[in-house]
Design goal:
three-stranded antiparallel beta sheet; binds pyridoxal-5'-phosphate; Aspartate Aminotransferase, domain 1; seven-stranded mixed beta sheet; alpha/beta; Aspartate Aminotransferase, domain 2
Length: about 400
């Protein structure tokens, strides 16, 4: 049965070509590492040229004010105050900075869900182990009815020992959007909230100030389409003095901004090129890009659910989706034995790049919907999966 919803009108060929994705590749995994438009790469190259032309002036004397200008732009797009933004190179680093800055006692509990990103759980385990604390996963079963059901499941896991809740805004393995907006007010004050927003900026309307979490870690290389190595940690003002970057350098103890702005000599070009990425979506229309991607993800979700005869993990209305979706795969595909084998087979035979995920004892395919994607990409994936499932 074909989907009832309609796919959005694709972006113009010259916009899609900006990404330089191999035309022979059906690239359905923007969600992992993103894809940077040429104009943003050019802006990063231009920054590298400027930095090399006059390194002491730009890095030695002006880097803090240059980064300050980027933070003003970030705050005007994603909320909060510019001074609350610290640059990190990826979301994992932001999470680690928070974990290392917090003090935990033996018996304390660090809570996440069973949808958590593995690298984040490992960082939690490492820090908990150092302090004699424990990490606990609260199960949030799929399928889910709605956002409210997700929230209830998370809150059911919070105990009086929970000192930190780490919650994905959008999960990686299950592409599910958690309603973090209402959460802070429902948590006891002794439990800090770290939102892992690796997949959130650029994927949905976002106001980190309104969420009110103590900590919000996010990537900019995914849905903002900024260079790899650009990410931020937003820290609520009352937590700023006690939050330190992973790399302790000259300005330790002198405040959140100087500490995060200077973590040793490094290539600052990825962070400095973030405004070029913000300008790219501004020119296309920020709302338009998010609407396109969401509509395409919802349509692809329905296409795959119906075409594979799967039970949807989240409602078909897309209320728990942003610009990715997962669909459970038919049992017959388990003859590939490992998810990596099926993923490699799709890449080798049809040149389809798409993650196959083993979560909750079931196999899933996760599709991303980005500016460079077209409806036929998902139809090709469906055909490839149907052929294998039948054979
Ligand atoms: C939910 C989630 N958290 C954290 C990360 C870590 O991102 P990075 O590898 O850029 O640190 C990812 C990466 O995809 C993710 O999906």
């Amino acid at each position: 049965m074909p989907p009832i919803t309609q796919p959005p009108e694709p972006f113009a060929p010259e916009v899609r070509a900006e990404f330089g994705v191999d035309p022979d590749l059906i690239f359905l995994n923007h969600g992992s590492f993103g894809s940077v438009p040429r104009c943003v790469r050019a802006a990063q190259d231009a920054w590298r040229d400027r930095l090399e032309r006059d390194p002491i002036e730009l890095i030695g004397r002006r880097i803090q004010s240059l980064l300050g200008e980027v933070k003003v732009k970030l705050a005007s797009r994603f909320g909060g105050a510019p001074s609350e933004y610290g640059f990190v190179t990826n979301a994992t680093e932001g999470v680690n900075a928070v974990l290392r800055s917090m003090r935990f006692e033996p018996g304390d509990e660090l809570l996440c869900t069973d949808h958590v990103y593995r690298a984040v759980r490992q960082a939690m385990r490492s820090r908990a182990g150092e302090c004699g604390a424990v990490v606990r996963d609260v199960p949030v079963p799929l399928p889910t009815l709605d956002a409210e059901a997700l929230l209830h499941a998370v809150l059911a896991g919070v105990s009086e020992r929970t000192r930190l809740l780490v919650l994905d805004h959008v999960t990686s393995a299950t592409a599910t959007r958690f309603p973090v907006e209402a959460l802070r007010a429902k948590l006891p004050p002794r439990c800090a909230l770290l939102v892992d927003g690796a997949h959130a900026p650029g994927a949905m309307p976002l106001d980190v100030g309104a969420i009110g979490a103590e900590f919000y870690a996010a990537n900019l290389h995914k849905w903002v389409m900024a260079p790899k190595g650009s990410a931020f940690l937003r820290v609520r003002a009352d937590q700023a003095a006690s939050t330190h970057p992973c790399v302790i350098s000259h300005f330790f103890g002198e405040g959140f901004e100087p500490e995060f702005d200077w973590q040793g000599t490094r290539d600052f070009s990825a962070w400095l090129a973030v405004p070029a990425a913000l300008d790219f979506t501004q020119a296309l229309g920020v709302e338009r890009v998010m609407r396109h991607n969401h509509q395409l993800a919802c349509w692809a979700h329905e296409l795959l659910v119906r075409g594979l005869g799967a039970q949807p993990a989240t409602p078909l209305d897309g209320s728990c989706l942003t610009c990715m979706a997962v669909v459970q795969l038919p049992e017959s595909l388990r003859r590939f034995e490992k998810v990596e084998h099926l993923q490699a087979d799709l890449y080798a035979r049809e040149r389809i790049e798409v993650p196959i995920i083993d979560w909750g004892g079931r196999w899933w395919v996760r599709v991303s919907a980005a500016v460079h994607n077209m409806p036929w990409h998902y139809e090709a994936l469906l055909k490839a999966l149907q052929t294998r499932a039948a054979g």
